[in-house]
Amino acid sequence: MDLAQMENVSFNVPEVLTRIRKYQEDVRGIVNANYVELLSINNHDVIGGLRTLETDIKELIASTTQLTADKSTVARNDLRNYQRDLEEGMRGYKIARKLLSIHDLFESMNLSGNGYEKTAHILSKIKTLLDEVDDPVLVDLHFFQGLILRYEKEYETLINDLNVKFNDLVQLQQRSFQNTKSVTIRIHKDENLLYQVVVTLLKTHHDFQTVCRFLLENVFAPVIVKPVSLICDEKSSEESVLIQLSYQLSVAEELRPGYKTVLSNVMQIFYNLSNMNIVVSDDECLFKVLARQMKKKLCTLLMEQCLERDIPGTIEGMKESTMVNDVCEFNTFLQTTNFVDGENDNLLQEYANSIETIHQKKLCDNVLDTALQIMKHESHEMVLIEDHEYQFVGSTTERLSSCMVTRTVVDLKKFLDKVLAEAFTNGGTADRFIQTIATILERYMVDVPMANEKLLFKIPQQSALFRNDCTYLSYWLQKNDDKLKDHRSFATTSDELKACGEDIFQHQLNNQRTQMMQALSGFKLSINLVELGTEQQRAVRQCVRQFELLKNVWQTVLPESVYKQSLSGLVDQFLKEIMKRIQYLEDITTAIGNGLVLLIDIMMDALPNLFQEPSEIHQLVKQWTKLLQLRQILCGSLVEITELWAEGKGPLTMCFSAEEIKHLVRALFQNTKQRQACIASIV
After folding, report:
1. CA distance 473 to 469
2. Which pLDDT score is estimated for 598?
3. Which residue ranges does the record assign to the Centromere/kinetochore protein zw10 C-terminal domain (predicted)?
């Protein structure tokens, strides 16, 4: 049985190889004619013969694979040779068959009645055959490269034809003028042809970027941010649907359309664009392709340039607003029209869910802006604040007093009262409102000093008012501690407000001390001085005048205790400086002594009047008693000074040391036995 099969193979293999070579020559002729000489040759007989040859090859291969190894080595070698020849022949056959199949597909494209979809299908099959390189020798064949070039040319021709036809069916036009722009979209109602074009474009993986760019830049973006004149007409013409809009190129911010108008226009445009929304399958349509390119950009533009701008910034406005429902309905409309991309379909729904949060933020931003506007008011009007409105009593027994604050801080306090009331009326916004109050107070401590820096540092009344304003706000915080104590934001704000006001006021006090010391630079007492001139008197009077001016602007503004403490501190330093210079004198002549007494009298007449009760100067100004005693020393005799000292038990011991009294005695009196006795008694 094996021998008979062997003989059959030895006869059939050469015959099959001969037939393969013949058909290879025929295919080579066809390829050369069509892809080299560009001549058309009938290849139907060749294809039929190839089919018969393929059947014979398969039967012959089956026969050779069934043969068993013969005992004869010669027979085994012959079989191997036949198998090798057959494999090489089969390889040549496959190449020839592939080339002829591709050529046959190209020829079928020329048949009449081929539509766009069928042409694209044929090209797809050709592309598949060209990409399936079973034999590496194919890529080196010159005519195989010719097949690739023909495919690329045919594919490019198809795409160009489809684009031209699509642009004819869906006409997108825009014209710009000096100040306006006109956009026209005309969609023809030839649904069958539009279906063929769109389906074929989608099968070629066309992304419609040009259409998306046109719609975004020339249609949706202007509709969202500008007032437009929109005409949508699908009934007037039996041949086409018309969408036409025009708008100004430059539009003022206040003329931008409201979100309801925008959503209505966008829905109207989508409704009419749906005439080109060809449905390819349950999972694919033109709108889905467009959505993958532009939905995220469209939704982002809508949210950032329209919706966010129209979210109410007041509680009343939010109560009346229907924006949340409107946005949800619009999102549902987009899904109903199949304008979905699978990734950004919940963007608008999520935004609708966040509108309340955005409203709260905008509301608090508006609250902050209003507070900042109040702070910027240059209010020179002062308001009297009674003690119970200004100072937090607590457990202190200190006598309280009224003071002055600016109209600005009173308005700000009333505004904070309103905000705090709203916070507890609307529980959902309470935390945000209270955090905004903390921000307002923090901004007050920064913005007001910066905006009024020159006034606060140069004008004593302004610095005093700012100190009071800060204390007033601090008191407001303490008064509302039961409402705010659970919020960490206010843990240190009250103390920080007080410190802010005190820092500014202390800076003013330092300026006043500097100014006083500059005036006292004219109060010079030297060894060579014979008598006091006008220079010393001018210096003293200048300081007294400075104190009187401070009284005029501080006494009715500052709380009584603060006024007394501040001004008495300045007066005390002034007296201390005067007496220090007098005590440094080594020799005080009668003329100088009389002049000093005159200056002390000026001070004794003027300084007590700085306070509401002149007699209070004894308690408020530490150096006042010493000044009175210095006058006694300057006017007194050795005997009187000795009696006032009274062996260290007299009134002079309250303010002077023994060495200070001795120095004054030596400066005032000549060296006599009486002076020596007086000095000896001062121990």
Report:
1. 6
2. 94
3. 401-517
